[in-house]
Protein 1
Amino acid sequence: MESIESPAFVPTQRSTVKRLAKRAEYDRTTVYQILDEGLICHVGFVVDGNPFVIPTAYGRIEEQLYIHGSPASRMLRTLQTGIDVCVTVTLLDGLVLARSAFHHSMNYRSVVVFGTASIVSEPEQKLEALRAFTEHIVPGRWSEVRPPNRSELTGTLVLALPLVEASAKVRTGPPVDDEEDYALPVWAGELPLELATAQPIADPRLSSAIEPPAYVTAYTRAATRQA
C-alpha cells in the first residue's frame, strides 16, 4: 500500500485517465482537496452481472475513505463481501460557453477511486469514522451533538476503502474554439457556479434562546478543504 507521505498516486490500468489525459491529476493534495470539498459520492459495483451506482455520503481520514449506512442496505451488504468497487466524486465549477455548440464544456474537478471495501468492526475506529462523516458535512458539529450510543453503533454499518488506486480529472479556463470561429459575433466565456447556503431555518421545537453557531451561519464548502 502507498504511504500517506507519497506525493502522488501511481496510475494503474484502471485509474489512468485516457480521455483528455492532459486534465489528469495524480497528486494526493488535489485528490484529497476534491474529496474533502464534495458532499456526495457515487458508488459503482456489479452484482450478478447487474451494474449499480448508488449515491451516498462519505468521510475521509488520511488514506481511508469511509461510507456508512444501515446493515440492511443492499449496497453495503454487497460491498462487505469483498467485491471491486468504484467511487466517484464530482465538483461542478462552471459552465463553459463556446462560439460553437460542439465546443461547449464545463469546468469541473472529479475523483475516481478503485478498490475493495472492508467492514469496520473495531468500536473506536467505527466511532472515529462516524465522527469523520459528521465533520465532513459540517466541520465543528461533532463536538456539540450527542455521540452515537451503543444501539446506534450496532445499527450502523461502516466500510473502509483504502485510497490506493485513485486519480483526479480537472478542467479550468475559457472555451477552446476552432480558430475560424473566434471571429463569430457570439458571446463566449465562463459562467462560474458555486454551492451556496440560504438563511438557516431553525427547528420549530428549538428554544428561542439558542442561536445558530458560526459554523452554520458562515458555512462554506471551500472551508472544508484539507491537504
Protein 2
Amino acid sequence: MNTQQLIDTAKELVAGDKGLLAMDESNPTCNKRFAKLGIPQTEETRRAYRELIVTTPGLAESISGAILYDETIRQKKRDGTPFAKALIEASIIPGIKVDTGAKQMAGHPGEKITEGLDGLRDRLKEYSLMGARFAKWRAVIAVGDGLPSRSALEANAHALARYAALCQEAGLVPVVEPEVLMAGEHSLERSVKVTGEALRNVFIQLNCQRVLLEGMILKPNMALPGLTCPAQETVNDAADATVKCLLRTVPAAVPGVAFLSGGQSAELASARLNAMNIRFKSHLPWALAFSFARAIQQPALELWKGEEANVSAAQQSLVHRARCNLAARRGEYTDAMERN
C-alpha cells in the first residue's frame, strides 16, 4: 500500500472546490431513466450518453473525478478511446463503483445488505490497470418503524470497511457511502439520529479494518426530513443539522465529505451545500464537497432525449449544474445562477 499516493489522491478529489460526478448507475437503473424519457434502452444508447458526459468541454473546471460503472469503464468513444483514458486526458480522475448492489438482508424485512466482497481483490486489480484511481461502495439504510436495526447498521458498516481496506491495498482511494434513505415520514431530528448512528458504526469498523482515514473520502447523505414528512425544514436548518451531526461523528483525519444528492432536486442540493459552506467552511476539519448523480445529470438527460442534435445543449446543462455546485462549495451559489 502506497500511503502517500492514497493521501495525495484523496486530497486531489476534493481540491479546488471541485466535486465528483457519479455516473455509475447500473444498467437497470440507467434503462429506467431512459424509459421515462422515451430513450431506447440499449448498450449503444448508454454508451452514447456516457460519451456525451466524458467529452463535455469545461467539465474539469468543476469536476475532479467521475465514478464509472463496470460496463462504462469498458466502453469507448466512437474514435476508440476508452472512457477512462478520455477522462484522464480531460484532467478528471476515473473511479469505479465496485459493489454489486443491495439485496434483502436475511431475517430483516425491509432492510438490505450490500454485496460484492467476493472476488473484489481481483476486480480492483483489473480496474486499477484500466485507469481507475478510486472506487465507491454504497450501503443503504432504511428509516421506519423499528428501522434501522442494529444488525443492519453493523453488517453494512463492516462490509464498507472491508471494501475500503481492499481498495487501499490495491492503491485505490475508497469512497465510503453509507446512505440513510430519504424515503419515509421521519423527521429531521430522526434523520440526524440515524445518520449519526450509521456514521459511528462505519468509523468503528474502518478503524478495526485498519483503513487509512487520510486516504479515503466519506460520501454520506445530508441530514434531511423524509420525503413525506409534513415538516420540511429550511435550507439553513438542514445545513446546521447536517454539519453538527458530522462534527460529532467524522474524524478530522478524513480529508473530504462529498455528499450524495439522494433524490433531492438539483437546485435544493446546491442550495443546501451552499448553506453549509457559508455557515461552517472556515472552521471545519474536512472539505464539504459533492458527489452528485441525478442532481447534476438529470437536466442534461432530459435535454438530450437520445438525440444527437441535442448533445451540445445537454453538455451545456451539465457544465451549468457542475458550476452551480462549484459555487456552492465556495458559498457563492445564488438563485440567480439558475436564471442565467
